[in-house]
Amino acid sequence: MDTIQVENLRKEFESVTAVDGVSFAVEEGEVFGLLGPNGAGKTTLINMLVTLLNPTDGSATVAGHDIVDERGAVRDSLGIVFQEPALDEELTGAENLAFHGRLYGMDAATRRARIDDVLDLVGLDAERDDPVSTYSGGMKRRLEIGRGLLHRPEVLFLDEPTVGLDARTRRDTWEYIQGLNDDSGVSIVLTTHYIEEAERLCDRVAIVDEGEIVAVDTPTTLKDDLGGDVVTMGVSGPVDGLLAELGDRPWVEEATRSDDSVRVVLERGETRIADLVRTADDVGVTIDAVEHHETSLEAVFLALTGSTIADAEGTADADTPDQPTAAASATDGEASDPGDTTRSEPAQPEGQS
Ligand SMILES: Nc1ncnc2c1ncn2[C@@H]1O[C@H](COP(=O)(O)OP(=O)(O)OP(=O)(O)O)[C@@H](O)[C@H]1O
C-alpha cells in the first residue's frame, strides 16, 4: 500500500511557482528522497504534505487522509523534523520530549512510557537528564528525530536531515536513519541536496528541479538508465578506425569523438581500461590520457536538467558535505558545536543492530 499519494500538486506564491504540478507515491516502509538544489521546491512540497501550507491545486493523501479535508488525521499520522533546529536548549532531552507529548495530548503515563521508548530508540537514554545545550550536533538531531516519532507516526518527514553536520556525524546520522527504518518500519520522506545522501540512504529518489519532478526511481535504476560509466581518452592517430573498432565491441554502449578525445560510455568502466588501451594499440592510435567517471546521481541530475546541483545553486561546493552551504550556516548552529568532537556518536540506536 502507498503511504503517500500525490496528484498534480501545485503551489504558487505571488510571482513564483514553487511546486509545478508534481505526482508521485511513497510506498509503505521505504526511505524516499526528494533530491534537488536549494530553491527547487522541496520544502514547499513537504510543507503542503504536512498541512502547513495549502496547495494552489492538485491533491495528496498521507496515510490515506486528504491533506486539505482531513488535516487533523494527517497531522496525527506524521512526524516532522524541520531544517531549522527547534529544541529548547535549556531543557533536558526528556523534558523536551515531555513538552511535545503534552502538545499531542498524551496522558502522563503514556508520556512516560513513550519517552522511555524513544530515548532508547535514539540512543540517548544515558543523557536523558542532561540539558540539550550540552548535546553534540548529532545528538540534537537524534533527539529531534525521536521527538518526531513520539506519537508513533506512520511516516516521518526529514527536511535536509544532515545540513550543518560535520562529515563523520553526517555518516553516523545516515546509518542511524537507516537502522530506524529497518527496525521500526516507519516510512521516511527526506529532502536533500546532497547527492551522496540520496545514493546511500534512499530506496527511491525523486529528482526535483525548478518545481518539477523530472525522474523517480531507485538510485541504481536512475544510474543504469544513463547507460553506464564514461571513460574519456586523449588520442592521436587514426581515430575513425578506433571508433569503428569500439562500435563492434558488445561491452561498449556508445563511443564518440570530440576534438582530440574519445568518449566511451560503458558499464563498469574500471574493468575495461586495459581492453580500451589494447583496442587503440591494435589500430595504431596513441593514448596520452585516460579519465574514468563512474556514473553517479550527479551525472543523472546533469543529464536530466542540464546543470549540476552545485551550478543550479550557484555554489561550487553544494555537494561538499564538510562545508555547509550558506543556508546551512545561517540556520544550523550544530556544525560548529564544540561538543561534536567530544561526545561519542553511536551510529545505531541502543539495543539495535
Ligand atoms: N512563502 C514564500 N513566498 C514566496 N516565495 C516562496 C515562499 N516560500 C518559498 N518560496 C520560493 O519558492 C521556491 C522554492 O522554495 P523551497 O524553499 O521550497 O525550495 P527548497 O528546494 O526546499 O530549497 P531549500 O532547501 O533552500 O529550502 C523558491 O524560489 C523560494 O524563493
Instruction: Report the average pLDDT across residues.
Output: 85
Radius of gyration: 24 Å
Give the termini distance in whole angstroms: 27 Å
Q: Poorly predicted ranges (pLDDT <50, ≥5 residues)?
A: 316-353
Membrane topology: Peripheral membrane protein
Domain ABC transporter: 4-235
Keywords: ATP-binding, Cell membrane, Membrane, Nucleotide-binding, Translocase, Transport
Pfam families: ABC_tran (PF00005)
Question: What's the topology here?
Answer:
Layout: E1 2-12, E2 17-27, E3 31-35, H1 42-49, E4 57-62, E5 65-66, H2 71-76, E6 78-81, H3 93-103, H4 108-121, H5 137-149, E7 155-159, H6 167-184, E8 187-192, H7 195-201, E9 204-209, E10 212-217, H8 219-225, E11 229-236, H9 239-248, E12 252-258, E13 261-266, H10 273-282, E14 286-293, H11 297-305, H12 309-313, H13 326-331
Parallel strand pairs: 3-8, 3-9, 6-7, 7-8
Antiparallel strand pairs: 1-2, 1-4, 4-5, 9-10, 11-13, 11-14, 12-13
This protein binds adenosine-5'-triphosphate.
Word description of this protein:
- This protein has 353 residues and is an alpha/beta fold.
- The chain has 13 helices and 14 strands.
- A 6-stranded mixed beta sheet has the order 6-7-8-3-9-10, sandwiched between helices.
- The longest helix is centred in the middle third of the chain and has 18 residues, at 167-184.
- The two termini are 27 Å apart.
- The chain binds adenosine-5'-triphosphate.
- Adenosine-5'-triphosphate (ATP) binds at residues 13, 16, 18, 36, 38-44, 160, 327.
